[in-house]
Amino acid sequence: MYSRIAGTGSYLPEKVLTNHDLEKMFDTSDEWIRERTGIGQRHIAAEGQTTVDLGLEAARRAMAAAGVAPEDLDLIVFGTTTPDQVFPNCGTLLQERLGGHSFPAMGVEAACSGFIYALSIADKFVRLGDAKCALVVGAETLSRIVDWTDRGTAILFGDGAGAVVLKATEEPGIISTHLRSDGAYKDLLYCPVGPSKGFAPDASGRTPMFIHMAGNEVFKIAVKSLGSIVDETLAANGLDKSAIDWLVPHQANIRIIQATAKKLDIPLERVILTVHEHGNTSAASVPLALDAGVRSGQIKRGDLLLLEAFGGGFTWGSALIRY
Ligand code: COA
If you ran DSSP here, which 8-state letter would residue 264 be given? Predict the structure, then answer.
């Protein structure tokens, strides 16, 4: 038994914050941001609009594409780092919004790798026969934990959501997933507060509910880790890199994407690129790109896709998929 992607969907909030808008907030320039990151703009959730609100829109679109009704679902796995509340988890909150009952629904926190982790978990449920129709979501309101005075991080992140419906099938589908994590890097990319550690103000008197990042070091380790995970994925399946039709990467930074594409000898024409449109949306990034590739007609049924992501922790991972 395997799982296959029966439908994809995504959603970006209406409000757009361009690089030129950021020029008015701190010392930066559109040219600098584009050159170093490839990002042109990011979308920002409206006041009161939550991660589950965004996830719901993406889920509805994925379910419509798959021809699936809420009563057909038997699992929700929701990847996010910016949940609506501590509990219930976002998967359960989404289940309620969709009108579903009693099947398992869970949240998965693996920073920017959240969707790949969620996909891998849902795939295992389907392979083991514990689910036949799973909804997998990656959604974030990262703008709520961005320090909008810090030009080193504020230029990078945005809000959004993406989703896929997985159905049980006899042929893959999802061929393999590969997950990695290493807490030795916990101090290079993190948000320092939480219910257990507390929300005490820092020396400047602000509650430091912000993303902290050592950009340069994150960059180098991301390139190395993604390079090795794509190698590992190909080797595990006895495939040559020329077999990949589309690279669907985490949309963090165009230069990180270019480095992985180079490693795979894949021209950028065969890489789904959306980073210019929405920046780094963490767990939403890969399903947003996947949905863009499907809806634009670039990705076709039967294509071999390599999805990959890297994020705080560090966590990283990949999925090899026959679409
Ligand atoms: N606008 C203009 N100048 C900026 C700037 C901004 N937004 N941010 C930093 N700078 C300046 C720095 O102050 C520094 O100036 P100095 O040389 O006078 O000290 C200079 O630009 C270079 O800074 P540096 O941090 O070395 O830049 P960089 O080339 O590493 O680019 C990032 C910074 C954040 C774009 C880059 O490190 C990056 O993308 N890292 C990966 C981040 C990421 O993807 N994280 C998420 C992973 S899931």
Answer: T
Q: What is the mean pLDDT, run by run of 10 residues, along the chain of 323 residues? A: 98 98 98 98 98 98 98 98 98 97 97 98 98 98 96 97 98 96 97 92 82 96 96 97 97 96 94 98 98 98 98 98 98
Q: Which residue's CA is the nearest one to ligand 1's atom 20? A: 152
The CA 236 to ligand 1 mean position distance, Å, reads: 35
Question: SS3 helix, strand, coil % of the chain, rounded to 5?
Answer: 40, 25, 35
Compute the distance between CA of residue 38 and CA of residue 308 in angstroms, rounded to an integer: 18
- Does 151 sit in the ligand 1 pocket, CB within 6 Å? yes
The DSSP output letter for 255 is H
* Nearest ligand 1 atom to alpha carbon 112: 48
Q: What is the DSSP string of 136-183?
A: EEEEEEGGGG--TT-HHHHTTB-EEEEEEEEEEESS-SEEEEEEEE-G
